[in-house]
Structure formats: structure tokens, C-alpha cells
User: What shape does this take?
Amino acid sequence: TVTAIILAAGNSVRYGQNKNKNLELVNDKTILEYSLDKFNSNNKVNDIIITCKESEKELIQSIINKNNLNKNVKIVIGGATRQESVYNSITKTDSDIVIIHDGARPMIKQSYIDSCIDEMENFKGVTIGVKSKDTIKIADDNGIIRQTTNRANTWIIQTPQCFDRKCLVSAHEKFKSDPTITDDCMILEKDNKTVKIILGDYSNIKLTTYDDLNLVNEFLKQN
Assistant: This one.
């Protein structure tokens, strides 16, 4: 069984518009709805969880109601961090597999969902990503370069990310106080589990700043 988890509980600080970027309208649909539509129509996904802030629960519920979805959709109140929001969600389902996606990534494709779930036969964790086009350097806190990565092996990680749920719950409970963790793949890595990267594409961008909105608009029009 597979539960899709769409993360929409962030503060959107970098977006800078005093609003949740997941609720930004593009072509009369919220950014959140593009991802919701994809998971709802995927035949490998059994049900859906959306994380949100308590103050936006009624608004998210109204979005769910108006879409006449054919899957059960549950709202879970998110935490102060992404890690807390994920943990709140993965402990509210008993599915074998969870597939986690940033609600602000509306260019998700059915092939990403299918590929991630299919690879769960072989791995405890799977993520979509793209090869880095640029040379990535590691610097210290003073901006001094300490290491240059091999570009051929450097990836930019996206979502969706798919996990064995019990394995992910266990890893979260071990490392929940670690502030350096930025995604769920990293939690599994810390727990010495192998995570597989599947090649996605560069259009699968996350709406992060308001400047990204024009680019997202164009990608959605093309599709």
C-alpha cells in the first residue's frame, strides 16, 4: 500500500509575499492542486495526506472538496520544520510505502511517481534528481573553498521521494533532533541505508521565490 504525502505547511519566507506559495493561483488553480491532481489520478497510490498549518486547515479542506477526488485525502497539521511535518504524517498512516512531495513543485510527472514506487522493490529509499550542470564547491563558514566535487557524480535532489515507511519512521526517531537534516534521504543516509537516485528533469522546479513564478507559469502552459 502507498500513501502520498504532499508538504504544504511551510512559512514561505523566501517567497516574500506574506502568503503560502502553495496557495498561489496559476491558471485558476492553486500550485498545490497540480500535485494533488497527479497523485489522485495515479493508480499506484492508495491515499493522500496533505500537511498544512492549523490556520490554513479550512482553506485546504475547501480545495480538497472542490476537486471531487476519488482517493481518500487526510489533512495533517505540520510542525515547525519540514522534518516535523514529515514525521507527523508518516505516523498517521500504516501504509507500507510513503511517497513524499513538495507541494510547491507543480511540475511533477506520473512517470516520477511510478518509477519511485517501482524501485521500492530494491531499495528502502528512492528520490528524483538531476545531474548538476555546474561545478559544486564545498566552502567553510568563512567562504573559503575546502573541496571541489566531481561534477559527474553531483546531483540536485528534487521530489518526489519514496520510502519504506517503517524504516523512515525508525530513522526519524533516531535523528529527529539533528538540525542539519534537510530531506528524508539524508535521514536514511545517516541510518546507513542505501538511497537510489532516479533521473528526473530540470523542469521539475520548486516555487521558492516570487521570481520563480513566471518560470513555473511557462512550464505549466507548455504542459
Remarks:
- The longest helix spans residues 165-175.
